[in-house]
User: Fold these one by one.
Assistant:
Number 1:
Amino acid sequence: MAAILRKELADYFTSIRFIIFFLLALFASAVGLFAASQGIRTANLPEGFVFLGLFTTPGKVIPSLVALLSLLVPLIGIALGFDAINSERTGNTLSRILSQPVYRDSVINGKFLAGVVTLTVMIGTVLLLVSGFGLAMIGVPPTAEEIIRLFIFLVLTIIYGAFWMGLAMLFSVVLRRIASSLLTCLGTWLFFSIFILLIAPAIANAITPISTGSEAEVVRNVELQKTILRFSPNTLFSEATTGLLLPMVAGSLGIITMSQATYLIPNPLGFGQSLLLVWPHLTSLISLSAICFAVSYVTFMRQEIRAI
Amino acid sequence: MTERLAIETHDLTKKYDGTTVVDHLNLHVRENDVFGLLGPNGAGKTTTILMLLGLTEPSSGSAQVLGFNPTREPLKVKRLVGYLPEKVGFYENLTPRENLMFIADLNSLDYAEAHKRTDEVLTMVGLADKRDMPVSKFSRGMKQRLGIADVLIKKPKLVFLDEPTSGLDPEGINRLLDLIANLPKMGTTVILSSHQLHQVQRVCQNVGILSKGKMVIQGPIAKLGREALAGGRYSIAVETVSPTPQLIDVIRGIKGVISVEVQDNILLITTDSDLRSEIAKAIVQNNFLLVQMKIQEFSLDDIYMKYFRES
């Protein structure tokens, strides 16, 4: 498997696709930093969480780094995985590789692992770059807690990217044509990032209509909407990001009525509480990635070579 | 039998969705042989090869490849066996050398050894001067030659070559066939699957013809030809100068001669064994001129066509 991992890594790092996405990631870091430089003074960040503001503060018109990453990371994941297996098939290289003394699962394991390493390098670079330049810009060093939060955010982002890569690989195992696997991936991404936002209220209104406008009805409706939205990995990621990097807002991930809000003391959530809050999101994302990988693994292992 | 078998299958059967692709196949290939695996499209040649490599599982029956069971010990088989698929593909963005180094790496050759072997095999197939040119610029024939290099890099004990000459120019075909014919001397058994029967005839001692997943015949080409086309008899054509009836009687009198036909100066003699020296002796001793003598050779085309006309 080491041989396949080596080759895949070499392939990824020399491909034009990687260079383009790497440049995009660098561009996103620059834009994110610029946004933070515009907004961080007026953001009114609590003491001890100023450094995190570099990642979460939007500018006047430009979105924050975290928002940019949540757009970019799925695309990087898809780009790394959508042709993993079917390109080998159309290039007639798969049967040649499989007739070498390697287990069949090493092929898919090696590819997945190489993808995770590539993702780690990309996202790690972005976070480190922004941290470095940001430190020079604001002059406030991160606290230990902020570093831990950022580290968990790094892990979360890698898992999020790995989920999209796993899904893309699944399509590359199941679908023979590279174009169809790419389109299916992008379609799925579009569905979970945009369409579900339009559909969720519609479904919620159909199942729990608000007729009297009573508090109980509204709460039920909104909770259902949130539940539907949480089927989307994009929602899971953005909620988990909020929980980790915006401890001030994190408390309001649930539903707060106006009457409750007046009693809300603006106080950042402790690290333990933040972690507790995003734990289900983290585990869901991990299990989603695992499911995607497992399904593609099993499908690949069971495919007859003739069909390959 | 003292000779070792490289491949031995026992009632090997493969079914895909209810259709039997390979049907109770019993194949025996000796070590250091060049064996031609023939048959029309869809006869099950590729499926047989895939089963022997352990890339696909047989539905029933068993196989032994170099003493290993390919279904249970695929890695041991694949370490010793090379396979050139009919449609061979390479990573287009890499150079031939990089492609081969990757295969060497998969075979756990160390770097120095891999480097040496890569240069050796590229020279063997005549691509040494193109080793640093990306494969995307290669022609079909060059890729095919690279495929041969790719198979040989691990010094296999057994190679399966599926249509190895497709896309090659006549000179390339000749070089490749010479290379194939020399492989047994280096301790490599060759299974050649091809539709180019005259090429198969040039390099293979033994052939097996598959049809609808069954082995129709297998054995040495000359023997198969006699059995299939001449009822097991030899046919010898002798050219002499104005033969007389006495000479014909003398030849008829040789033990083993079945019949003699005369066509001007040519005598067509049917025998049940190779009697060329006896016939030559009879002609010369009776003071006739022996201009030339030819034993009928059977072309693989004829053998092949006969079996498929019948079925």
Number 2:
Amino acid sequence: MSRRVALAIFLVGMAILVLPGFFAPEFLTAKDGSVQGAVGPFAAPPLGTDSFGRPLLDFVQQGSRIVAGPSLIAALIVMILGAFGGLLACTQSNRLSTAVQVIGEILGALPRLVVVIVVVRVLPEEWRGLMPIAIAWALLTAPGAMDEAASVASRLGGSRFVEAMRAHGFSRRRIYLVHILGYNLRPVLIRQAAETFAQVIFLEMALSYVSMMQTDISELTHGSQEEGWAGILYDGYSYLALNEPTGHSLLLGLALVALVLIVVRSVVYAGRAR
Amino acid sequence: MSSALIELEGLHIKHRERTLIQGLSVSVQPGEVTALMGPSGSGKTLSARACMGQVDPGLRVVAGSLRYPALNETDWLAPVVGQGDRANAALLKSTAPLRGAYFSYSPQLASSALNPSRTIGSQLALAIARRQSPPSSVGAAVAECLKEVGLPAYCSKSLPSALSGGMCQRAALAIAVAPQPRLVIADEPETGLDPILTRAVTELLLKVCVERGCGLLLISHQDETVERIGARIVRTRQEAE
């Protein structure tokens, strides 16, 4: 598969994941009874309904709205901090490198899921949502990305590579932005950002699923009027457990999970070095 | 007016109170090989970099003059002597157009000279783009450069990681000479190579420079290599102070 094909798959996948969020309805409402009976193919909701007659397309759209912004911001944070870590390894600023390394080690040593739970519990009710969780997750993931980017920069030769490039007559800006960031750190940063993007989406699905299973836990990642992609999987689970006719929900939920993984793999493939 | 490609006289560089280089003078004539020799840590690389107008932050040029007589009579070190980092940065900027064009540099390790994420061909194309008169066909020029250093044509599409150490060293040499510089500064090209490859690479370097009529400033600490190629020798002193 060429990089262009991978890029095209990524763009189409991202469009499918993100764009529905812009058209998401405010509330999920069941269609009237006629829809659940025998109707023509164009009158029925395109992806079917859940056990309560609510269109699954609305779930997909609301899920997109919930995860798109926070997961993309988390990916961006990881990418920026990773780039900072990589570029820092190519400079001779030992004090700053040490300070960043110490902070990274402290952050990296924290158990991420515990921190996420603390964030969820500590934040006031009105601030709760996926965004603070995603930012916390990104900040805890970033030290790993910075370390990996720094090791790539070190393998490159660090400041020796910069000096060699300078001796070839390249400007500092071109060396850092094109030769180091563009050519060498790009694959690592894209992979780390893509993984974080997927992690935040799966985290949202997991937390939503938990709050659906435990009725005493309120929604952790979105408002109580909204349903995310976990709702689709939750509805589909009754097909496995109780043999209810919700297999289409299960398939749709798994398809969304697969789409996230395809998007991640395709962008990693498109961003590889060669 | 002298025909020398480079004239460095009385270079004296300090780091705080420690003298790193004292009273070093080097000149290279077109078609001539000058070897800069000395033990490890005696400032050979620092001197070579100073020849290109690269003085690291934190270092202070106490005395010296640097001219490229084949170009003009400007003393490039005059604004830097006795000054600090800001003057060093200004020198670095003002000499940038000369690096990779008037002179080129081949660092100690080929791995430092080659970008691991770019094919040898694309790196050569970048170097060729710095020629004063760009060729009509970059592809043909890349093939010619590879042939000149004895690399097969398929290396053009290879990443450095796909080549052996000796091939990488040849590729680094090809990149150094691709811009058709008037002076090549080779920093210990024998580093990391076995004796047979060392000889092959040094002789190749010499052959390419002689054929092109450019000067060669060879940094080395191997007497045998320098004696064999009959270079004029300039020695750096260890721990000048």
